[in-house]
Design goal:
nucleus, DNA helicase activity, binds magnesium ion, AAA+_ATPase, 19 strands, eight-stranded mixed beta sheet, about 475 residues, OB fold (Dihydrolipoamide Acetyltransferase, E2P), Helicase, Ruva Protein, domain 3, alpha/beta, elongated, binds adenosine-5'-triphosphate
Length: about 475
């Protein structure tokens, strides 16, 4: 079985998600210059210079293939751009390096064990670039000659094909004749035939024949007759993730399971076989491993079992760079009664590089607001900007960004182009933020149903904003 491990083709990339204006749709990269210095305001990113630079450095190492099996943690108060920076990293990496993003709670909600879910996420983040050599026949068709048998059941024929330097005659069987007539190949066409699959592709028509016919479709491409030998070797490269190779080889329905998402648990023996095979390919120079990035958001939601699995998995031969984010300060480690920084056990913390994010200054908040306004196509009056910037100090950046679109809807209702301070005020009165919601609950004591424990205020659990 290990001898024929299928890898599928490059079409197996994830289907791109539909574009819409989401919370992070203004983020287009990390906004760093060539020396990895963060620009003040670039690619949708503002401020948070240290964290961006750290992210950029790590990325550089990933791109050079120098780092794998490391872990990094973004720690900071809510809405200070941890998720935004991770998305910026994903966009900088380019299409060939795998980037997987999961929220820690996803591990619990799938119909498989926690460790299997984590293993799949790990293997999804490792790319294998496979080089394959195929033989192709490429040249200009001189003549196609087809002989039918008396009954018409079998066809045989000859294909004469030439390049500038040589001319060759090939014998044709029924299948090839069908393939050629399906592509409507005639003399004067430049074609390529894949020798392994027998696939015929029409590349265009020869310049030499361009004057033979006047009636020609507008989309006809004229090409020079190719040079060199008729039969050539060509190298094709495609990148798949280890997880894709696992899935294709694990089930009878093969890669269909990839689209259905119904991958189930994959046997460790199969993974071992695939690892061995991929290592073999690597030694033979047929494949290259591209360690990618796995981003685990809200990592404090993982439990102690997952953390101990992570410790071990990071030391595995095929481990990606793991980036985690948490907004917790001292928090209980899920599954235990111990408290620990960021809700992560000490032995894992010891393995990670920690990068902190900080609340934004007034100037930065204004710039982020401006970027969001451009993204959402909203115009704010100067006073509205002032009041929102002031509000962000009392509440959070995210609340303020949410208010922009609400206030815009109110402004549109009164048929105004510019969102004014009144619209913001009204939106502020309709939608309360976290602090006011706590206040409101206090006032409503006894009216709203309450559960035993009292509310864990932001001060206790979430990282301090000051
Ligand atoms: N430096 C920045 N430049 C531009 N936009 C930013 C920046 N930082 C944050 N934002 C935007 O602010 C909002 C909140 O940021 P984000 O979701 O990244 O916070 P977070 O640190 O992940 O918070 P949480 O801990 O609550 O998950 C998002 O819409 C994000 O795109
Ligand atoms: Mg986040």
């Amino acid at each position: 079985m290990a001898a024929q491990i299928a890898t599928g083709a490059s079409e197996l990339r994830d289907i791109t998600k539909m574009e819409r204006i989401g919370a992070h749709s203004h983020i287009r990269g990390l906004g760093l210059d060539d020396r990895l210095e963060p620009r003040e305001n670039s690619e949708g990113m503002v401020g948070q210079a240290k964290a961006r630079k750290a992210a950029g450095m790590i990325l550089k190492m990933v791109q050079e293939g120098r780092i794998a099996g490391r872990a990094m943690l973004f720690a900071g108060p809510p809405s200070t751009g941890k998720t935004a920076i991770a998305l910026g990293m994903a966009q900088t990496l380019g299409p060939d390096v795998p980037f997987t993003m999961i929220a820690a709670s996803e591990v619990f909600s799938l119909s498989m064990s926690k460790t299997e879910a984590l293993t799949q996420a790990f293997r999804r983040s490792i790319g294998v670039r496979i080089k394959e050599e195929t033989e192709i026949i490429e040249g200009e068709v001189v003549e196609i000659q087809i002989d039918r048998s008396l009954t018409g059941a079998t066809k045989t024929g000859k294909l004469t094909i030439k390049t500038v330097d040589m001319e060759t005659v090939y014998d044709l069987g029924t299948k090839m004749i069908d393939a050629l007539s399906k592509e409507k190949v005639t003399a004067g066409d430049i074609i390529a035939i894949d020798k392994t699959s027998g696939k015929v592709s029409k590349l265009g028509r020869s310049f030499a024949r361009s004057r033979d016919y006047d009636a020609m479709g507008a989309d006809t491409r004229f090409l020079q007759c190719p040079e060199g030998e008729v039969q050539k070797r060509k190298e094709v490269v495609h990148t798949v993730s280890l997880h894709e190779i696992d899935v294709i080889n694990s089930r009878t329905q093969g890669f269909l399971a990839l689209f259905a998402g119904d991958t189930g648990e994959i046997k460790p023996e199969l993974r071992d076989q695939i690892n061995t095979k991929v290592s073999e390919w690597r030694e033979e120079g047929k494949a290259e491993i591209i360690p990618g990035v796995l981003f685990i958001d809200e990592v404090h939601m993982l439990d102690i079992e997952c953390f101990s699995f992570l410790n071990r998995a990071l030391e595995n031969e095929f481990a990606p760079l793991v980036i985690m984010a948490s907004n917790r300060g001292m928090a209980r480690i899920r599954g235990t009664t111990f408290k620990s920084p960021h809700g992560l056990p000490a032995d894992l913390l010891d393995r990670v590089l920690i990068v902190t994010t900080h609340p934004y200054s007034d100037h930065e908040v204004r710039q982020i607001m401006q970027i969001r306004c451009a993204e959402e196509d909203v115009t704010l009056s100067q006073k509205a900007i002032d009041v929102l910037a002031l509000m962000s100090k009392e509440t959070t950046l995210r609340y303020v960004l949410n208010l922009i679109s609400c206030a815009d809807t109110l402004a549109r209702k009164r048929k105004a182009e510019v969102v004014d301070i009144n619209d913001v005020q009204r939106a502020y009165s309709y939608f309360i933020d976290e602090k006011r919601s706590v206040q409101w609950l206090k006032e409503q004591q006894g009216v709203v149903y309450e559960e035993g424990e009292s509310y864990i205020s932001a001060k206790n659990d979430v990282m301090d904003q000051s």
